[in-house]
Amino acid sequence: MSHRKKSIDAVQLDTNMNIRPSGDQDVMWYSPLEAPFHIAGFGWLQEEGRYRRLPAHPSHHIPDAVDQLANCTSGGQIRFTADATSLLVKVKLTGPANMYHMTATGQCGFDCYLGVPGEQVYYGTTTYDHRLMAYESSLFTNKVRENRLFTLNFPLYQGVEEIWIGLDREARISPPPSYDSNQKIVVYGTSITQGGCASRPGMSYTNILSRRMNLEFLNLGFSGNGKGEPELAHILADIPNPACLILDYEANCVSTELLAKTLLEFIAIYREKHPLTPILVISRITHAKEQFHADMAQERSDRKQIQQRVVEQRREMQDDNIYFCDGSTLLGADAHECTVDGSHPTDLGFLRMADGLTPILQQIVGG
């Protein structure tokens, strides 16, 4: 006698996984585009009012894929101080979750941290029906009314058309503490830079770094499309007050020969406007299959040497503010345990990347 197996619905079996409506009607809704809220991570927000990582009408032509990916909100943050006892968000996305190797919370969700840089602690992540393009979710509840610094991290792999912040009606809101300076750390790279495949937004390596350094980070990672185009170098050079430019695009460089060409040109273009800004070149992290495919390991080694030589050549030209980081060391001895698919880091992989980069950045930038 055969027994038909039922599909397993963990949400029904575990009540902790249920998506619960807030049920809180005593809420005031605010646009984070208005004071005293502060939004970080979007270099052209003040002029354009859009949650977008590149200008809507860039000064130089960019590939269509880069233009579309610029609408992904990776690295965006909402910061404010409030004595709220509850915090909700209403979110309208540009599309639903649709990735097979990345969680919906990482692709389309927000997460919440409490505390000042260096002391920020994770509190919660949005819960919602991942099939939808709009949702409402509670991010914070606490009966104790006291001032707290809130940081909400935007989705990594989807666009946000609208977000509203809901606080209890008695909550008093004030601006967040200032950054150490108005300078920004600009990070250009690939899907790894963009945050693939963190389980939630706060675990991308640029967001981890932002919790350790009291500066604004601009995440300009473009999935499959960080190729070192000179047009992007010109656009990045237009970003005012850079504290550091990080170049982490080897994984998408198309070919070893093209990497050698684009890296030299990219740095030269950037140096025309920013002759003294620190530049950190990072070679890519190891791929899990390298231990089985010698040609992959050799290719990575060849490309690392190219990047090292470029940095050395610039230093011979009296460019003393350029540095190299060997990305193959960042994931550690058991690097194969740190990715989703061999190349894209898990939260563990991103944490190790941030741990390796933190002292380097602190030495370069200070703080």
TrEMBL record:
Membrane-spanning ranges: none
Domain SGNH hydrolase-type esterase N-terminal: 28-173
Matching SUPFAM superfamilies: SGNH hydrolase
Domain SGNH hydrolase-type esterase, first and last residues per copy: 183-362
This protein's name: SGNH hydrolase-type esterase domain-containing protein
